[in-house]
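Ticket #4471: structure export looks truncated?
Reporter: QA, pipeline team
Priority: medium

Steps to reproduce: submit the single chain below to the structure queue and open the exported record.
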Amino acid sequence: MRERARATDCGPNGRVSTSSSPGCLFCQRMESRKELDERTVYEDEFFHVAHQTTEEERTVLGILLVQAIRHVSDLGSLTDAEAARLGTVISTVSRALQQCTGAAWTYCFGFTESYRHVHLVVAARYPDLPSQYVRLALADWPQAPRGGRGEVAERRRLRQAIGNRPGPRRAF
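Actual output as written to the record:
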């Protein structure tokens, strides 16, 4: 299949752009590497995976944010190589979350209403999660395991579970 990209995602000569977009929160995250590396679990040439944190810099452990490294506005604008890799990243991260957190299964969801940049959340669905906290209410569960930037052991376990798959990645 040929590589696809919308005109807005292309640089000179119609090639896929690797640049960021001014004002895009997700592009700004990729430019703040020192802070981002503290939460990073995995990265390859297309996608970055990190613990999602709240404004208080604490998060429910097992909620990961998968984002495209380049600025791409929607899933239909991914190249074929990016789309194939995204599927592999999601399944690999899901297996690692199940192995490391004891999750019964994982959720995967994404909305690009506020920021038009491809990003998905992959979250551990804990077996003892009360029914009122399923789906998008997961982060509201008061008894959920929580941590901040310092949760090095959690990141290390996830990184080891991911191993060298699905492709080339930065060393952490």
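Status: closed, not a bug. The export was complete when the record was re-opened. Leaving a note from the reviewer for reference: The beta strands are 40-43, 47-51, 59-60, 63-68, 105-109, 119-125, 146-147.
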